TrEMBL record:
Organism: Actinocatenispora sera
Keyword DNA damage: no
Family: Belongs to the binding-protein-dependent transport system permease family. LivHM subfamily.
Main location: membrane
Protein name listed in UniProt: Branched-chain amino acid ABC transporter permease
Any GO BP annotation: amino acid transport
Length: 290
């Protein structure tokens, strides 16, 4: 029983990061109609910059803020330099552009950070936490806390602020939003910037558990896409649910079978959902539409 609980808590801890990244994918898709396969690279950039700054001797909070700032700038530049010039292209071409951007970002990260993994120490010291016979590294609590805070702040932004309301209006009807004086281009820029921030937060809190290297962006992007599709691309709540589910599947596969099969089971689940319920498991249960 303690073994099952350990796998469950570990899966939920890792799944919170997938939830953040999946939420970014869902947000960009709803506002722009584009599936951003470069979303995982925001996790990679956030984690690598945080580990590099922290390794250079900067205090962890300062390193985290710098990593967050740099990653959001990269997200904004991705929109301004890649998506906006091709705004009249069809969605298939835009998706291919995000794949190309992801490969380019990986190459740039190799030049800047090298091919080695970058390590960072846990945010708080002390041994694992014992709960019901299970032992869990304390860093997983930071992952969960960061996800809860980020999701709540995102919900407040979307429902309580004027820019958030404009983003929701654009997601509902772009032409009507334009007639009301809302710029879809600005909303697209805002969506990419916020999605990059979510990815950076995920990368920062996950770095002490899974030291990143320049090649982790594409795998994270695929996991984020899986999380968003499983929950429903039009449902932010569904994206969070999908992320947690992907984390659990990986943890159970690693614990009970082998880590070699975790991707097989995860993407097998994606295939099953696409065949049985292509709109996502929680599509009708969405509470907030952005």
């Amino acid at each position: 029983m303690s073994e099952f609980l350990t796998f469950t808590l570990t899966g939920l801890g890792t799944g919170t990061t997938y939830a953040l990244v999946g939420l970014g994918v869902a947000m960009v898709f709803q506002v722009t109609g584009v599936i951003n396969f470069a979303q995982g690279d925001f996790v990679m950039i956030g984690g690598l910059t945080f580990a590099s700054f922290a390794g250079a001797g900067l205090p962890e909070p300062v390193a985290a803020l710098l990593a967050l700032l740099i990653t959001t700038v990269v997200g904004a530049l991705l929109n301004l330099l890649v998506i906006r010039p091709a705004r009249r292209a069809n969605r298939e071409r835009l998706v291919i552009l995000t794949i190309g951007a992801s490969i380019t970002l990986e190459g740039l990260a190799l030049l800047v950070f090298g091919a080695d993994s970058h390590f960072a120490k846990a945010f708080t010291g002390g041994g694992p936490i014992s709960f019901g016979g299970a032992r869990l590294p304390r860093q997983y609590l930071w992952c969960a806390l960061a996800t809860v805070v980020a999701v709540v702040l995102m919900w407040l932004f979307l429902t309580r602020t004027l820019p958030g309301t404009a983003m929701r209006a654009t997601a509902m009807d772009t032409d009507a939003a334009r007639l009301m004086g809302i710029s879809p281009a600005r909303m697209s820029l805002l969506a990419f910037t916020l999605a990059a921030a979510l990815g950076a937060i995920g990368g920062i809190v996950l770095t002490p558990l899974q030291p990143p290297d320049a090649s982790v962006g594409i795998p994270f992007g695929l996991k984020a896409f899986t999380a968003a599709v499983i929950g429903g691309l039009s449902s932010p709540v569904g994206a969070v649910f999908g992320g947690l589910l992907v984390g659990l599947v990986e943890a159970y596969a690693t614990g009970y079978i082998s880590s070699d099969y975790k991707n097989t089971l995860t993407f097998g689940l994606l295939l099953l959902v696409l065949l049985i319920r292509p709109t996502g498991l929680l599509h009708r249960a969405s509470v907030v539409r952005v």
